[in-house]
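Chapter summary example.
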Amino acid sequence: MLNLTTIAVEPLVALIAGILILIQPRLLNYIVAVYLIIVGVLGLTRHM
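The structure predicted for these 48 residues follows.
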């Protein structure tokens, strides 16, 4: 079971927001989504 203290909230939110933005695609949305996904993945990998 994952412990909430070990999960960084900001990267997880950024990752989810990035995936949700990709569902409604526009050029700016793609740029923001890619940024959020990268920040989310890097943030999660630092805390694992």
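To summarize the output: The CA atoms of residues 13 and 40 lie 7 Å apart.
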